[in-house]
């Protein structure tokens, strides 16, 4: 696929991602995924067309198991339109809450959901004697989505209209009460609207809803067609167009297809022909997409989704995939979603027409698994071979679009992670750190997703350390700082302070630090085999590290495991991460220092906390804040501050290390001011351990 075409598709997909109506449908369908999985699995277990299995299942526990499975299936799919409408309205409200500058209270979510539910059930005619419970099933998904979206738009438009606002009548201090009061007028208007709309629709078209009208129109088109070739294409295009917009096309047109194409002897195209050879795996021949993802996708999360859906897709139940990826409302998959069924149709029709494959001789239940259905429908394994061929062609068609979908997912993830990093940096600048994963917005969503991935990465030890050498005034390497890195499979390298923040919030810091100390101690053990001079590795810790009861034991275990000394493992803490002065922490610091560990203050400036640290005997080394060292050549005030810090350090027997040293002129100026050692890109960027050892060997004097 050409790069320009791919970029156009991705832009279109992103624009849909930002449309609140489309997002509400998509997220509403994601919300009901647990019900879909339960209902689909129940249907799959009930429908397996193997006589011996059916006999076993029917007699198992006297038929109780079948009743339970049917109970679950009916509970989901016989009320599917109701579930979908409520989920979509809730999703719509939550999106409004995030995307517009309009107050949306918790009560609004409940009021709109109930208003949608009442409007939908009334619209389906529960008040009439001829009402059927089937109206609430997945047959009427189009109407359910229509009612949910219109209700949402009207609800918030009416609330903005100020026709009835309780804001100026705050005679009650209960927020829920006031929100409910303000919701009366919108709820009544919406319910009346759908009552009137149904009556007008019935008067004009003699049907109750748009979906019924659509069935009549398609039925009339099919009845005037003499050729079942073109009739089949019309059915496929109509079915998949509806499906793409989140409407269960197969159920919407089920009556049309059953009336016109249920007889397998009337011609090549029939409902069984469509189920067996055209839409294998469900609408869009989703089994082709599933196989394409399993074979060619580089994204683990995509493969996990299709692995979950694979058993149901084999039984032609596609909802988990089309809602979970998603496929619906996703322009990236629109082309293959429409093309693959048409290609399957043409190939299968021609194969049967010219006699390569026997015609369909018997009806087959639509949930019959692929290959078995091909054999049963034609009475020959040639039918199964035809299915394999069309599957292979469908996989090839879907493959490039899977790659585009991955690219779009990567870009969206990268953009969201960048937004999260920007928020962390903003908080660092303001000095006010708040919980990211507790937020109820886009930042909170991506923070929770990233935290879950981080937990898995820590368990699998996918994080690693890089090392940036430190050089003294004589040009001799005296050690290195260990720097934590995590390369997320989709978002790339993650900002290290964000990693630490997420581990703190999710109580994973102890696990992470146990891994870091083990890695750093192991690195020291490897280096000392080849380096005879004294050196050290410094590891960053936080105040939470010192408050962790197992911290000392963790450090000690790492040292014993690799037989290293405390003098070789230094502990570094940032100036803004203030250390608690509790007796417990002070005793822990003293114990660690007695074992040879030295403490460094990182990002040292002239702040109040920095000066307080100079009064203690906790620290041995100060590392100058990069904000001071970066522009020392241009900013005389920074030079004066550094000179003062160096003077204080010499008076109190501190060693001073300058970070972010990038030019020889900068280093010479810092040397003249009295700095003892340097760290920065002038000498080396952070490097892997395999590169650090030869680097240190080259810089021994």
Q: How does this structure look, described?
A:
By secondary structure, the chain is of the alpha/beta class. 63% of the residues lie in helices and 7% in strands. It has 31 helices and 10 strands. Strands 1-2-5-6-7-8-9-10 form an 8-stranded mixed barrel, surrounded by 4 helices. Helix 30 (664-673) links the parallel strand 9 (655-658) and strand 10 (677-678). Helix 18 (331-353) runs antiparallel to helix 20 and helix 19 (372-378) packs antiparallel against helix 20 (381-430). The chain starts with a helix and ends with a helix.
Structure described in brief:
With 701 residues, the protein is of the alpha/beta class. The chain is built from 31 helices and ten strands.
Radius of gyration: 33 Å
Q: Hey, roughly how much beta strand do the residues contain? A: 5-15%
User: How much is the average pLDDT?
Assistant: 83
Q: What's the count of strands?
A: 10
Termini separation comes to: 57 Å
Shape: elongated
Q: How many alpha or pi helices?
A: 31
Helix content estimate: 55-70%
Largest sheet: 8 strands, mixed, barrel
Q: Which stretches of 5+ consecutive residues score pLDDT under 50?
A: none
- The SS-based structural class is alpha/beta
Strand order of the largest sheet: 1-2-5-6-7-8-9-10
